[in-house]
Amino acid sequence: MAKIKLTKTELKAQTDALKRFQRFLPMLQLKKQQLQSEIAQISAKADAVAAKEREKREAMQHWVGLLATGKELLEGLVTINDIKTGQSNIAGVAIPTFESIDANVKEIDVWATPAWIDDATRMSIEVLTLQSERKVYEEQRRLVSAELETTSQRVNLFEKVKIPECKEAIRVIKIAIGDEQTAAVTRGKIAKSRVPEEDVA
After folding, report:
1. What CATH number has the domain bearing residue 92?
2. Could you tell me if residue 131 is inside a domain?
């Protein structure tokens, strides 16, 4: 704890600081709980999207034999030009929200390619869309987790450092002021007891 002045002014400053910390602490604790809840929800959404992505990939497995013969057809068949996102706010944290992907489909000769290429294109777009959505959820989780870490540090700072320091400072100052007042009263009594003796002399 930093050195404190043992004065009434410092006592007021420490008392005001304590009130301020005690007022902000519940808000920080509430924000911490809210962020923890949001992370759980984001994780659940990310897991659900990842499960759908796995299902789509598994559904594509029956094409494996076909893909072996048409591998050159599939290379670069679908590419992502852009992931379109919006923005939202969670407990004061700006996060991206998934909207859609801008996919580029390679031009192919429909007469010279097998019929399954249309299904492969559609499924590739669906998988890439789910993959992009999952990545946006992962970014949301990263941003909210970083804010949770900062908020948790502030809660710990207030709970374990600032509030105890203020309480200890107030205790020390009150003792010092009390001792000073007692000494002043004692000095007053001594001075008062000396006055009659001087008058008698």
Report:
1. 1.10.287.3240
2. yes
34 within a domain of the structure (yes/no): no
Q: What does the block give as tokens for 155?
A: 């809660």
- Total domains present in the chain: 1
pLDDT digits (tens, 9 = 90+) for 73-90: 556 678 888 999 999 998
Extended beta strands in 39-179, E state: 78-90, 93-105
In a domain, 71, yes or no: yes
- Gyration radius from the chain CA atoms: 35
Q: Which residues contact 81 (CB under 8 A, 6 or more apart)?
A: 101, 102, 103, 104
Rounded Cα gap, residues 47 and 124, in angstroms: 20
The span from the CA of 26 to the CA of 82, in Å, is 42
Closest CA to 98 of 136, 155, 129: 136
